[in-house]
Specification:
seven-stranded mixed β-sheet, alpha+beta, globular, five-stranded mixed β-sheet, Chloramphenicol Acetyltransferase
Length: about 500
């Protein structure tokens, strides 16, 4: 793994409100042709943006709101690394303009009582407070805040943008560190807003690049069957911590090379994608970790969000992905000992697992199903008051915990925007991290920029301490390198094309 690489164990959250670091700065500059900008910085604390409408919580938002826990903040963190410092007044103006251009992000939760039938978003005509701050301090401190301090749902917008100097990094520069309350929206939706802010700030075109070409070829035969019954308990990443009962999340941030992919075959397709390589690497990491900790083999099940939204300016803002679960079939049992033994994994075994995983993921992405499955829609049907629905949703989540997937893999794919901030420069790297809530206690999030893979490994501190998290990250790096294509394997006969993990396979919905 290459720098920048750091591990963080965020402190237990101090509450739902915004951190003190988000102090208001100078008044934002009005954005032309978008109406008057709201005078949030320096305004009276009692002033709130005017409400313009009300929207009931969608299914994903409601389930997330039901399951909020103070010791595991529901935050998504995004880092955009820039060469130089953005001008504060212009950045505030650009962010304000972007928020108003994507008005669905300007929401706060309306006051709710247990007997109400719905949680409701109140749309606002502007921010209640300035979301942009220059708090000073180190990037490590900013990352700890991102893991521990969740932006409040009671103030619009439910995001926080901190501009921090990256004094510790090899390349230096400045970082836009964005913290999102995941109950309100996911990472890709927020990135769309930030791309608009970049365009307003620098004036350069930040329209999304076209997605990779996908060949329409279909492999011979039906997709492989699931590994096990849905009633079989999946593997859980073995706990390894010196701080039992600790709260909050820890995180490892690093950069890896994108693994080599097989060339396109005569039909224009490739045997597997980077997304499939990430899934197999996650399987190897989890299975090897558990074997090293003396755990008996159990099926690894990976939750993978799929995002079908366009990345254009009219992209729907909110939680817009659907969750699918990837299993690894009979190959998992047959290849377990081979792939988890010490030393480099067997190349032939890896190729076999990659091919069957590619067939499964294609079928899963094409399946038409609700975002959280049919059970999610049933749980949020307003037959009962929201307080009672919250109670039985939390009880069901706790009771079904042993059957939750092993981990979450959020593959954002290639960043489709230039993220060109004019005189502050273009983004040199982008990182995302998704919540690592129990019972999984682990999430893997990847982004691809400039031919490199930005990885964020995030874990529950009740499951792993900082030292263990770093060792798990090293296992993942080695596993991903082992999936890299080598000429001469039978992966040359491919069936589909994705030059790189595509935005459509992003994982940023209910869990990212």
């Amino acid at each position: 793994m290459t720098a920048p690489q750091q591990g963080f164990d965020g402190p237990a959250p101090a509450g739902e409100g915004p951190p003190g670091a988000g102090a208001a700065g100078p008044a934002p500059v009005p954005v032309p042709d978008r109406g008057p900008a709201p005078a949030v910085p320096g305004a009276s604390a009692a002033r709130r943006a005017r409400g313009t409408g009300r929207v009931p919580f969608p299914t994903v938002d409601e389930i997330s709101r039901h399951c909020v826990a103070d010791d595991e903040p529901e935050t998504v963190h995004i880092e955009i690394h820039l060469p130089t410092r953005p001008d504060p007044a212009r950045l505030r103006a650009a962010v304000t303009g972007a928020l108003r251009a994507h008005a669905r992000i300007l929401v706060r939760q309306a006051p709710t009582r247990w007997w109400h039938r719905r949680y409701v978003w109140e749309l606002t005509d502007g921010p209640d407070r300035d979301p942009v701050s220059y708090p000073g301090g180190t990037l490590a401190e900013g990352r700890r805040r991102a893991l521990a301090d969740c932006p409040s749902l009671r103030a619009s917008p439910p995001i926080r943008v901190e501009v921090i100097e990256n004094a510790d990094g090899d390349a230096g520069g400045w970082v836009l560190l964005v913290t999102i309350n995941h109950t309100a929206l996911d990472g890709p939706a927020c990135l769309r807003v930030l791309a608009t802010a970049a365009e307003l700030y620098g004036g350069a075109d930040n329209s999304p690049a076209p997605p990779p070409v996908r060949a329409g070829a279909v492999p011979d035969g039906p997709p492989p069957a699931p590994a096990t019954s849905s009633w079989t308990r999946p593997a859980r990443v073995a706990a390894d911590t010196a701080h039992r009962g600790a709260s909050g999340n820890g995180m490892l941030v690093c950069e890896l090379p994108v693994p080599a992919r097989p060339p396109r075959g005569p039909g224009g397709g490739a045997a597997y994608t980077v997304n499939d390589q990430l899934l197999v690497a996650t399987w190897i990491m989890s299975a090897r970790w558990n074997r090293q900790h003396g755990r008996p083999p159990r099926p690894v099940r990976i939750t993978m969000p799929v995002d079908d939204r366009p990345r254009t300016a009219d992209m729907p803002i909110g939680n817009g992905t659907r969750l699918v679960e990837v299993t690894f079939g009979s190959e998992e049992r047959e290849l377990h000992d081979t792939l988890t033994a010490s030393g480099p994994p067997d190349r032939e075994a890896i190729d076999r697992l990659l091919r069957v995983t590619a067939a499964r993921t294609r079928a899963l992405k094409q399946a038409d199903r609700p975002q959280l499955g049919f059970s999610g829609d049933l749980l949020t049907t307003p037959w009962l008051p929201v307080g009672l629905r919250r109670a039985y949703t939390r009880a069901l989540r706790e009771g079904a915990g042993p059957w939750a997937s092993t981990t979450l893999l959020s593959n954002i794919g290639r960043v489709p925007y230039a993220l060109d901030f004019g005189d502050a420069g273009r983004a040199t790297a982008v990182w995302f991290s998704a919540p690592a809530r129990s019972p999984r206690g682990l999430s893997v999030t990847t982004v691809s920029t400039g031919g490199r893979l930005q990885l964020a490994l995030r874990w529950s501190r009740a499951r792993l301490d900082d030292t263990a998290g770093h060792r798990l990250g090293e296992l993942f790096a080695a596993a991903l390198a082992s999936t890299s294509y080598e000429p001469g394997t039978d992966a040359d006969t491919g069936t589909r094309t994705e030059a790189e993990a595509a935005p459509g396979t992003e994982a940023g919905g209910a869990e990212a």
